[in-house]
Design a protein that fits this description.
This is DUF732 domain-containing protein. It comes from Mycolicibacter nonchromogenicus. Keywords: Signal. The protein is mostly helical. The chain has a domain of about 80 residues. The longest helix has 19 residues. The radius of gyration is 13 Å and the shape is globular.
Length: about 120
């Protein structure tokens, strides 16, 4: 399973709305450090394309830059959004809902999101 597919599976395993309610980080931990260093970049990707493609780009950026296991991507995304662009929380929830539905129907994300 590729990193993006694994990340989507992890994110989709969570109830919609839970991604942003996950405790994001504490001072001095790896997630907090990542959010401090990259949270603005993650939010900039979402702001540049304020749609599902932007969130997908943000998730790809997290996978490429965090160095943490893919199962931490939800916490990194949640921490970044909560710290730097809380107004985009609903869009992240929509992305999680979309990925969950896509996995259930087993259709390809490539045709829709330009993978």
């Amino acid at each position: 399973m590729g990193k993006m597919a694994w990340c989507a599976a992890v994110l989709c395993g969570l109830p919609v709305g839970l991604v942003l309610s996950i405790p994001a980080h504490a001072n001095g931990d790896q997630i907090g450090d990542y959010v401090a260093d990259h949270g603005g970049d993650v939010c900039a990707l979402i702001k540049d394309q304020p749609n599902l493609v932007g969130v997908k780009l943000a998730v790809s950026h997290i996978l490429a830059t965090s160095g943490l296991p893919a199962d931490q991507t939800g916490r990194l995304l949640a921490g970044s959004v909560r710290a730097d662009c809380p107004e985009d929380g609903a869009l992240v929830d929509e992305f999680v809902w979309y990925e969950k539905r896509r996995q259930q129907s087993n259709t390809g994300v490539g045709a829709t999101l330009g993978n």
